[in-house]
Amino acid sequence: MSGVIRLLLAEDQGMMRGALALLLGLEEDIEVVAQVGNGDEIVRTAAEVRPDVALLDIELPGRSGLDAAADLRKQLPDCRVLILTTFGRPGYLRRAMEAGASGFLVKDGPVEDLAAAVRRVLAGERVIDPALAAAALSAGPNPLTQRERDVLAAAVDGATVADIATRVHLSPATVRNYLSAAIGKTQTRNRMEAVRAARQNGWL
To answer: Which residues form the Response regulatory domain (predicted)?
Structure first.
């Protein structure tokens, strides 16, 4: 099996995960050594199977693929990370690059391109969807601070200020200040519009 690329696949939709594993496994130089459906399992499983490349979805139960990518780069620096997502959002691309990912692709491409991207990131190249790269450049950086993102993330389900304050361990007054700042930066009218705008841009 010399020269075979060991791949970890993280995808929460069972049918998509199985299809990707099957199609990539047909490539002579790629072996899918692990499949996980929960973000919390990524780093632990990777530590066990030692993949060459981790192919990660972003929106997973538990930790997101972006958070897991950052952990992988710290704990298994020889493992290349390739993000594969349905959501081609400029903010996601920026966060993926900041987390140390070597590539970022959207799921609408052919499997041959995905296999080629796996080989390229292992060879040390950076592989980014061209249209998304252009969009990320025009969109500019994420204007929200980490605390503002934390507060908006806690507000996703329509939680009250008191609920948010409990979740993020801040006072209600401080939460209101962060929400107000986030609403201003996203140029929206209320917290739920701010949440939607932040998610659409990939800032959350």
So the answer is: 6-122
